[in-house]
Amino acid sequence: MTMLRILALWIGTAFRANPRLTLLMCVTTVLGAALGPISVYGVKLIIDGATGADTLMSGVAVTVITLLVSTAANQIAGPLGDTLDDQVVRYVYDDLLRLTAGIPSLAHHENPELADRVSLIERDAHQLGGIWRMLMTIGVVSGVTTVIVMLSSVDPLLNLLLLLAMLPAAVSALLLHRRNSLWRENERFRRLANGVTDLLAEPKHGVEVRCFGLVAPLVEVVRGAMDARRIPWVGMTRRYGVLEGLAWVVFGAGYAVAIVGVLGWAQAGQATAGDVILVVLIGPQIATTAQGMAANLAIVIGAAQTFGRYQWLRDYATEHAWSGSLGAPPERLTRGIRFEDVSFSYPGTTRTVLDRVDLTLPAGRTVAFVGDNGAGKSTLVKLLARLYDPSEGRVTIDGTPLTELDPAAWRDRISAGFQDFATFEFLASDSVGVGDLKRRDDRVILDDAVRSGEAGPVVESLPDGLETMLGRRFTDGVGLSGGQWQRLALARAFMRPEPLLMLLDEPTAALDPEAEAAIYDRYGQAARDLARRTGAVTILVSHRFSTVRMADLIVVVSDGRITEFGSHADLLAAGGHYARLFELQARAYR
Ligand SMILES: Nc1ncnc2c1ncn2[C@@H]1O[C@H](COP(=O)(O)OP(=O)(O)OP(=O)(O)O)[C@@H](O)[C@H]1O
């Protein structure tokens, strides 16, 4: 069943990429492979005709026509196949991007099994174009059938030759199977080598890599990972190479025996001269057919495995598409957002990161999350954006479970600024504008967002203002400092007009104090304005208590639990963890 699905996906992919070309390939490959051996039969008819039988003219006709047609078919099969390959590979690359980027959760980015499979598909994507190889294998099968018919016309015993010629094909198929298992087991080494190579090439890490003298040890890690993958593969290829050589020797011996045998039959009057010539000529044909079979089988098995992974990824994407979540978010929040008995462990881990969290974030309020490193603040933020689903319990929006809302529609109503902001190396206008794709070309809104994100001075310093290309990796664009990038990220967060939720997860860590104060002023205004218009909840994650105190409510997170909850004044009066931390920071500033 699985094999059939893979086959259907393979052919379906080629047909989706280019239906007419795929059909043409089907016809030409089958034709090309079947006609070669028939031409040998024509030669037999000619020889028999020359030695008395009435087959001379038909032999000439069969030989000439089959040779012409098969040569023409083989000639066009190559270029057509290459074109089809190219189109299928491009189609699959697009589909891979669509599938992986289309999964609404973040969980798959942290799934090593998925990462290995995607990485293998990307590496082997060229094989996915091998549809014509598969067709050629079908062609080879029709060629084999023709050979069987002709050998049987002399003596069915001669079909043993074909069996002997299959030995090397079997050895190479076995090698392929073993090699594939080895690659799958060792894919993590390739990803490790690529990851470390990227790290070495990434300008962001360049300073530390050089200061700490990490170039040589990291290069050593890359070499070690490549060797861990390469050495077993070389040994295996060598062993199977010897076996395949031996298999060809066995075939050669069988061929010699067959010629001697047919000669004996001819001398005894049991075979014609044409039969002898047929066996002599068909030997190389059989070898070519078997070699073709081995080569094609190798590619077909490889492609079938890659298509198997592709099928797995498509199934995974379908299962994780949250296609049942279709609800629309409310126009405005009236009650607020609730965590109801929420527990959470990151996918693939067992550690409980959030432990039975019960928390109400009232509509129209600004709520600050504070707590030690690793307490679970950012995890709460990720659950609010539904980047993951809770392991237990639920998050509700005005009473509706978040899992019932269309994730794209919900995220459309979120504005966000993060500590780990993205540095989009686009035109400056796009780097900000992607904060709301629908309005990214609206200059008035862009200018407003730039002003609100305190990014005005950054844009003014750019040679072509918002029309300046950013980033130096791919173009002659302008390089920015960490703080300048962050200001653009903040501007991006001001693009959406009517969010229901504003997520600010340490969004000012790279800013100078003046810009930070100004930005929080803006956020304060935006939060009050949004509270009035949409009842939006603003979430603020920060370690700076001067910022935190401006929130209406403060949530202290400790080891995945909520330990304190209330206004700044309430929590100070309670004299708990918050009060101690606040006092500690305040003292440092005095
Ligand atoms: N992607 C992940 N996979 C597995 N565990 C994770 C992942 N992200 C975070 N964690 C773990 O979850 C716990 C909570 O992390 P979280 O990022 O929510 O903490 P935080 O309170 O925001 O910390 P910080 O103040 O340092 O930003 C940590 O122990 C962390 O190791």
TrEMBL record:
**Topologically, how does it sit relative to the membrane?**
Multi-pass membrane protein
Q: One short Pfam family name for this protein?
A: ABC_tran
Cite the entry's keywords alphabetically. Answer: ATP-binding, Membrane, Nucleotide-binding, Transmembrane, Transmembrane helix
Q: Would I find ATP-binding among this entry's keywords?
A: yes
Q: Name one GO cellular component term.
A: plasma membrane
Transmembrane parts of this sequence: 21-43, 55-73, 131-151, 157-176, 246-266
| Domain ABC transmembrane type-1, residue spans | 23-302
Any one Gene Ontology MF annotation carried by this entry is: ATP hydrolysis activity
List each copy of the ABC transporter domain by range.
337-584
Q: Where in the cell is it found?
A: Cell membrane
What name is this protein filed under?
ATP-binding cassette subfamily B protein
What is the protein's species of origin? Microlunatus parietis
